[in-house]
Amino acid sequence: MRFAVRVPATSANLGPGFDCLGLALNLHADFIVETGRPFHILIEGEGAKTIGRDARNLAYRTLVSALVRKGIAPPPLELTIRSSIPVTGGLGSSSTAIVAGLALAELMAGGAVECARLVEPAARLEGHPDNVSPALLGGLVASLMTEERVDALRVPMEKMPGAVLFVPVLRVVTHRARGVLPRVVSHEDAAFNVAHASMLVAALNAGRWDLVGRAMDDRLHQPARAERLIPALPDILRAARQAGAIGACLSGSGSAMLALVDTDADAVGEAMCAAARDRGVSGRAIVTRVDESGTVVLDRT
Prior knowledge:
Elements: E1 2-12, E2 21-35, E3 40-45, H1 58-69, E4 77-83, H2 93-108, H3 115-126, H4 132-137, E5 140-145, E6 150-155, E7 162-168, H5 174-179, H6 187-206, H7 209-215, H8 222-228, H9 233-242, E8 247-250, E9 257-261, H10 265-278, E10 283-289, E11 296-300
Parallel strand pairs: 3-4
Antiparallel strand pairs: 1-2, 1-11, 2-4, 2-5, 5-6, 7-9, 7-10, 8-9
């Protein structure tokens, strides 16, 4: 039998929304399982040279574990991953693997893929909800994770911004990016981020592009990551805004960066690349848009 799902890339945090805000992007990874075949993992597109092809592959491990929890013996299978999501960090590539593994397990168990119901198990496996939630639900998602439960709510947007990504050659590993964060922050900085995250959600919901840029300022994670890991970050984000972006931020924990646009996306991408070159950083710009579909089933035959 053949089962296939498509999962979008995500950009988490969106500046001040540390570990709680995320946006699905129109870059995708397709995960295709064909049962009754000798074990084999094929990677096509982004990550073809870096993603593991053995039983430690994250999508495969998640799929097998989910089937076992359902009391189903994993059959021999071939897994193909076709991805347009860069794996240098900050675009949720690991979250797509977790989401895909869980969704494929639902299909192979004979059930439907109920994306809202998969948010909690996906967040528990990932450790944070801000990437997996938009990967499942699409669009802009606010998430709340406690020891008791995980809640995720899609935020309607009056109009959809475009998106420009700058993807440096530099790779930032998530655990290292978390390791540079301060253990204690001031009450002033905490209040700053609460206010800005609240305004960002309201501004995106209302289509108030004039407020989005200011609302994307952050004091909890971007300054430390810029100082310790990505020194060129402030200059690249500044260049994006000067070129007309309505707002810009580090994507997730980096190294990718996100600019939201409503005009000339190509000019913003060129400005980000130029600012990076001036700082000795090589990379590429990707023009995309918000994904509104989330995880979808492509095949079940």
